[in-house]
Amino acid sequence: MASEVASLAVVLAAASVALAYARLATSRLAPSIPRLAALLPVLLLLPVLPFAFSSIHLRTISAFFLVWLCGFKLLLLAAGHGPLHPALPLVRFVACAALPVKVRDKTEKQQQQQQQASRSSLPSGFLLSYAAKAALFSALVSVRCYRARMPAYAVPVFDGAHVYLMLELFLASAAALARALLGAELEPQFDRPYLASSLRDFWGRRWNLMVPGVLRPCVYRPVRARFGAAAGVLAAFLVSGAMHEVMFYYITLEAGTGEVTAFFALHGACAVAERWLARQHGGVWRPPRPVATALTLAFVTGTGSWLFFAPVIRSGLDKAIIAECEGMLAFLERAGRNLTAMAHLV
Fold first, then answer.
1. Which residue in 202, 217, 264, 309 is deepest, having the highest Cβ count within 10 Å?
2. How far apart are CA 162 and CA 74, in angstroms?
3. Cα distances (Å, whole numbers) of residue 171 to 72, 108, 190, 210, 328
4. What angle do CA 65, 69, 74 make, to 5 degrees?
5. pLDDT, tens digit, for every residue of 36-80?
6. How far apart, in whole angstroms, are the C-alpha atoms of residue 39 and residue 25?
7. What angle separates helix 317-345 from helix 229-252, to the nearest 10 degrees?
8. Which DSSP string corresponds to 149-176?
9. On the CB side of 312, how many CA atoms lie within 13 Å of its CA?
10. Which of 137-146, 273-282, 295-304 has the highest average model confidence (pLDDT)?
């Protein structure tokens, strides 16, 4: 644990210095090839930093933050597109680049004010929601040993719930840190993906929203402008699959098998077909929302068990990931007991 804390300090310092340089360099150059060339040292450094961690979780999460999201944001910066801009204050620039957050501008905030009013007026409900998710995640980790005895249909549901809760808790923690640093309203990372009524709804509007947030301007819009919307969707899913292969390399430290790319290629093709069917027959008949939600989640979990989780399960790293989760929960439990004891002493 001490070595991982030291590695975390080194990675944070290196990333902060690199991003401070990126802000300074781009402030002196117009969006162009020279700006991209100036950012190249940073783009080459970021993929190396996650290897400072021996923990699978820290290595993979830092790779997601720095290699994928930050890398794509820097590419957009090189082209003169947001969310980064050299005029941003240094702390905000570094936080927005390195963390999976996007500051909500005033227009977006006004548009979503009514939707968010109930949540904003009930911060205790927000905290209670995340406390319940943390408790459920802890329960899933505790009963992981019974996974082998579960019915075949329950295993992908169990794995999907584990990934969702783990990601949302990690990303919510990063967002809380960013909110403390920036003092600004942030866009959410998830929007109840378990209520998705279509693949387009799941991937585009509910699941890990920072990913479509960078894929739209980097991939979808340029491809759509040249080849049409269907090609843009397929390209975005293929790039997402390729980047997930990179993330899986940070998990397994082995070359990808292509299964994860196949998973996203399949979902991209199905999303295009879904869009076409909605245009052709959407006005005639649509399944009731509960049925559509059940079908969507069944498709995601079923294909995820077949293609997405296969590399990790085959390598046996799913057991190592659970062991790390158990160690983290034990550490937090000990820390909580120590804090309680100190409070009693005071």
1. 264
2. 31
3. 18, 21, 9, 10, 16
4. 120
5. 999 999 999 999 999 999 888 889 889 999 999 999 999 999 998
6. 8
7. 70
8. GS-TTHHHHHHHHHHHHHHHHHHHHHHH
9. 24
10. 295-304
Please, which residues have CB within 8 angstroms of residue 78's CB and are 6 or more apart in sequence? 26, 31, 32, 35, 36, 39
pLDDT digits (tens, 9 = 90+) for 152-162: 667 777 777 87
Question: Distance between CA atoms of 257 and 339, rounded to whole angstroms?
Answer: 45
Enter the DSSP assignment of 79: T
User: Which element (helix H / strand E) includes 40?
Assistant: helix 33-45
Structure tokens at 322: 């659970």
pTM of the model: 0.81
227-254: buried (b, 16+ CB within 10 Å) or exposed (e) per residue?
eeebebbbbbbbbbbebbbbbbebbbee
By the 8 A CB rule, do 169 and 132 touch? no
Q: Is 124 exposed, middle or buried (0-12, 13-18, 19+ CB in 10 A)?
A: exposed
Question: How far apart (Å, rounded) are the C-alpha atoms in residues 199 and 24?
Answer: 41
The single-letter DSSP state of residue 85 is -
- As a whole number of angstroms, the distance between CA 341 and CA 337 comes to 6
CA gap 170, 177 in Å, rounded: 11
CA distances to 5, 46, 53, 209, 315 from 177, in Å: 17, 20, 20, 18, 33
Using DSSP, state whether 103 is helix, strand or coil. Answer: strand
In 3-state terms, what secondary structure has residue 190?
A: coil
How far is 125 from 130, CA to CA, in rounded Å?
9
216, containing H or E segment: none
3-state secondary structure of 39: helix
Dihedral pair phi/psi, residue 58, rounded to 5°: -65, -40
